[in-house]
Amino acid sequence: MPIDFRNLGYVYDKKSPFSHEAIRDISLHLDEGKFIAIVGKTGCGKSTLIQQLNALLTPTSGEVQINEFCNSSEKKKRTKKYKELRKLVGLVFQFPEYQLFDDTVEKDVSFGPKNFGLKKEQAIEEAHKALNKVGLDESFYDRSPFELSGGEKRKVAIAGILAIHPSYLVVDEPTAGLDPRASKDMMQMFQSINKEGTTIILVTHDMNLVQEFATDVIVMDEGRVAEVTTPVELFSKDLEHYSLEKPLIFKTASKLNASKKYNIDESKLRNVDDLAKAIAEGGK
Ligand SMILES: Nc1ncnc2c1ncn2[C@@H]1O[C@H](COP(=O)(O)OP(=O)(O)OP(=O)(O)O)[C@@H](O)[C@H]1O
Ligand SMILES: [Mg+2]
């Protein structure tokens, strides 16, 4: 089942003199099974938008429907089964510190599965599997999540959500603070669970990741949805207005084509390997 935003808006501190309209009039339909990237300038409302998906924030106008759950500005329309909703939609915050709470990594990651009904041993098994997926071995199990590096904290926060096997995995800047190898491994792991059926919603400033992994892109601008498109379409346009950088391989291919020695089809490029192959084949 899909996700439907209907005229959704959110105003922070609505009734105070400091009220701020962060997103407005969002109407959007997202199909299941996709790998969707949400991009746009700092402060354009990406994090505010995704927090409506598991009812961490309640819209101040309009609503979002996720399967049978409705998060609405109208009290009578709201589905109040928040626990079920949070099993369906797993959200990893932009700042993982906000998500960690227990005194060991193992307890922290096993909390979710236990909370959703698994016995302690099974929950711990799920936690170990999830930690393995994000690249943390058993030496981390007994460590305090608060004494880890920024990148390790992020991995623990992601494992905590993976352990509950959500149908929609929403990740806000998941590779921030990770080294290049860990970042690539993390993205490939998201891709593999996407292929197994999990819908991925990724907020990122990294257009290289969008090009390589996303099937669809939502561009936000000043609190609104400016475009719903694909990476290929998006990167073939002028992106200055949105403050977006084109992916490196796209820029490289354009420069090679401009030299007239190559005629590379940019729409077929997803990663560096594709570009290298196109060059090796004489740039066709
Ligand atoms: N708790 C808050 N109280 C008041 N205003 C807020 C709050 N959180 C965010 N805002 C404002 O709402 C707008 C949207 O913020 P949001 O965090 O959704 O942007 P973003 O697109 O995720 O930005 P970034 O790329 O920097 O993460 C910004 O103008 C921001 O200043
Ligand atoms: Mg944000």
Explain the overall architecture:
- This protein is of the alpha/beta class and 284 residues long.
- It has a single domain, classed as 3-Layer(aba) Sandwich (Rossmann fold), CATH 3.40.50.
- The chain contains ten helices and ten strands.
- The strands form two sheets. Strands 6-7-8-3-9-10 form a six-stranded mixed sheet. Strands 2-1-4-5 form a four-stranded antiparallel sheet, with no helix packed on it.
- The chain is globular.
- The structure holds adenosine-5'-triphosphate (ATP) and magnesium ion.
- The site of magnesium ion (MG) has 4 residues, from helix 1.
Features:
single chain, 284 residues, alpha/beta, Rossmann fold, six-stranded mixed sheet, four-stranded antiparallel sheet, 10 helices, 10 strands, globular, binds adenosine-5'-triphosphate, binds magnesium ion
* Assigned CATH superfamily: P-loop containing nucleotide triphosphate hydrolases
Order of adjacent strands in the largest pleated sheet: 6-7-8-3-9-10
Ranges with pLDDT <50 over ≥5 residues? none
Q: Provide the domain count.
A: 1
How large, in whole angstroms, is the Cα Rg? 20 Å
CATH fold label? Rossmann fold
Major beta sheet, specifics?
Answer: 6 strands, mixed
Classify the beta-strand content into a percent band: 15-25%
Helix and strand composition category: alpha/beta
Sketch the topology as an H/E string, one letter per element. EEEHEEHEHHHEHEHEEHHH
CATH architecture: 3-Layer(aba) Sandwich
Helix content: 25-40%
Write out the distinct hetero groups bound to the structure.
Answer: adenosine-5'-triphosphate, magnesium ion
